[in-house]
Amino acid sequence: MLAKDDTAMNDRERSASSDEFVEVRTPNLILRVIWFLLIGWWLTGILSVAAWALNATIIGLPLGLWVINRLPLAATLRPASSQYRLEDGVLRSGIEQHPFVLRAIYFVLVGWWLSGLWMVVAYALLLTIVGMPAAFWMYGRIGAVTTLYRT
């Protein structure tokens, strides 16, 4: 019976020491196109304005950043992050982030105004057929422009 407990402990130690990566599958391309044509194009504009307005207030800042990091999901049903790692039984983002202090300083000095300009340009491109690829690329990087958030 003691040997069984040692084996269980070794399994736990092994699983805790090695991180498992989990991939998130995106929805079907046809579904994503239909979503964008019916809902995504106008929902993204509304959420962009709301997120930037929330970022202008200290109280609304956490919610505004949360919305910004999910703008690609609102536009085209693309998940905010497609890779996660299982660490000690907790699902975490698969990409390491910059230090919080660096991200906070960047947001205060550059991110708040650059993200507003970035979203205006991205939405203007989104409304044109020729500019859509660039708009999707820009919306995919809005978290990095705002707070150096890595996806």
The arrangement of helices and strands along the chain is HEHHHEEHHH
Helix content: 55-70%
Give, in spatial order, the strands making up the sheet with the most strands. Answer: 1-2-3
User: Low-confidence stretches at least 5 residues in length (pLDDT < 50)?
Assistant: 1-17
Span from first to last CA?
A: 46 Å
Largest sheet: 3 strands, antiparallel
Mean pLDDT: 82
Structural class: mainly alpha
Q: What count of structural domains?
A: 1
Indicate the multimeric state: single chain
Approximate shape: globular
Relative strand content: 5-15%
Cα-based radius of gyration, to the nearest Å: 20 Å
Summary keywords:
151 residues; mainly alpha; 3-stranded antiparallel beta sheet; 7 helices; 3 strands; 9% strand; globular
